Known about the structure:
Helices cover about 35% and strands about 10% of the residues.
Amino acid sequence: MTAQPAHAAVSGDGSRAVRAGEELDAAAVDAWLKPRLPHLRGTPVVSQYAGGASNWTYRLHYDNDDLILRRPPAGKKAKSAHDMGREFRIQQALKPVFPFVPAMYAHCEDEAVIGAEFYVMQRLDGLIPRKNLPAGVELSRDQVRSLCVNVLDTLIALHQVDHRAAGLERLAAGAGYIQRQIDGWSRRYADARTWNVPNGRGIVDWLRANLPQDERICLTHNDFRFDNVVLDAQDPTRVIGVLDWELATLGDPRMDLGSTLAYWVEAGDDFIAQSTRRQPTHLPGMFSRREVMDYYSERTGLRPRSWAFYEVYGLFRLSAIAQQIYYRYHHGQTRNPAFKRFWLSVNYLHWRCRRTIARDRCGQGA
């Protein structure tokens, strides 16, 4: 591909020095990329985004352009995980029908270039909300409420995309999604389990016994949270982009929302939840998890008997993701110190699963 991308200006978006052990061969990338994007000038200044705990994401700042490179991590990977080509093609297909997707520029299948498959895309010029809003951004309670609504409306808009019109009808099997998710995440958790986390069998047994019968199929993101959206720098309540499409598939939209809720830490949550918070859902004006479910139900008409199943699924799934990441750290496949205590988060997430199940059994809802 040789089309010239639009220039993206530099802004503070969280990129920083590359972590030890995760260095990128900038010269090799530059030599591979310039024949495909011949407008590029100079050599790239490379920095890395610290927010990603799965795929490694780098910023390539050229004299006349600003790009993003995504590659899988080193070490053991779950089967079919970190498929760069799939993530590239999904966004390429989505771009014409879902304007929040960055433009895709080039995909490299030859692992000899940098030791892994990778792709390069447009860097969106905006703000990424992480644990807190970006430095210098102050929003009133009403503005925070608008931001919350706009982020949820973006997820709802994704769930309404005609995936057939986008050519994504073969992205996944579709029907039977809920059962496959429970089976798949329980297997992945068991495969990555270490001595210091629970076996999770009681949670999995409850999920299997409470499978919803009214499955819906649409395009789902499966990692939709605030630090995967890009906000307009001039109006930080407005969403201009959605990132990290590695887990996107055809699935049930309520499962997608359940995954989002697993990251949703409220102002009144306990100190453990607060210590793991990675998005600004604690701010005055943000919806509670209950309000998120009610808003989604009102806007979509999807009203499950109980949201407990979707909440427990989201929490257990997040525990499996955290455990897969911790497994790599435990076995010395990554030296990122941020992963050292992920096993504690896994234990905590299982406790929240059990608490939600107990509430549902008592008829108190999720």
